[in-house]
Specification:
Elements (H helix, E strand, L loop, with lengths): L5 E9 L2 E4 L2 E5 L6 H11 L12 H14 L9 E7 L4 H12 L8 H4 L6 H10 L5 E5 L5 H14 L4 E10 L2 E10 L4 E2 L2 H9 L1
Parallel strand pairs: 4-5, 4-6
Antiparallel strand pairs: 1-2, 1-7, 1-8, 2-3, 6-7
């Protein structure tokens, strides 16, 4: 039984930049809004997944963070769980859906928007893309809760047959966004501790 697990790789998406393991891999400082930045980052990573353009911004930012990590790490098997959290849930998309039904003269509930009115849909997009069929969960906290993530992710790795966990914080509220996503496994140099998670999250 492994008692120690490690942060194998980590990614930030903040301030119109995409970071992997402490290095900037895409600088979109010229972007004037979040949607433009996310599409620019997608093209820069040379991803081929047309469904990306139909996603809401929360799913896009989750998807891009996962793609950035998995671009350099080949999963030995598909036994990888996903544990994400945020503050705003799917509020940005909820607002868009509400707008689509608020006007009595132009009432049209949009199915394409409604699909994304749960925060865990981004997890589903990642799971489909990488054929992951393990556990997944999405939690809501006021702020990134490193203590919870460390305990929950270690518990999964210690007491199941999982090989790794993709964890982190993915929050989008309008043009305010923050993503910190990492892969925890038996490999790596940085121990998966509350202190290290907080240190990496703060950058």
């Amino acid at each position: 039984m492994y008692k120690n697990f490690y942060i194998q790789s980590y990614c930030y998406i903040r301030n119109n930049q995409l970071w992997l393991d402490g290095e900037v891999v895409f600088d979109g400082k010229q972007s004037d809004n979040l949607n433009f930045f996310l599409k620019s980052a997608y093209r820069n990573l040379e991803i081929k997944y047309s469904k990306f353009f139909k996603m809401d911004n929360l799913s896009k930012i989750s998807f891009l963070a996962a793609e950035t990590i998995f671009k350099n790490i080949i999963l030995e098997n598909k036994n990888t769980a996903i544990v994400f959290s945020n503050k705003a849930a799917s509020l940005e998309t909820d607002r868009k859906f509400q707008d689509s039904i608020s006007n009595v003269d132009n009432f049209y509930p949009s199915p394409a928007v409604f699909v994304y009115t749960l925060p865990n849909i981004g997890i589903g997009e990642i799971s489909i893309r990488h054929n992951l069929k393990s556990e997944s969960a999405f939690f809501i906290f006021e702020n990134y809760n490193a203590n919870f993530h460390q305990n929950y992710e270690n518990e999964l790795l210690q007491n199941t047959n999982l090989e790794s966990v993709l964890g982190g914080w993915v929050n989008v509220d309008g043009d305010n966004y923050d993503a910190f996503v990492y892969l925890v496994s038996k490999k790596g140099n940085v121990k998966h501790t509350k202190e290290n998670l907080l240190k990496l999250y703060k950058g």
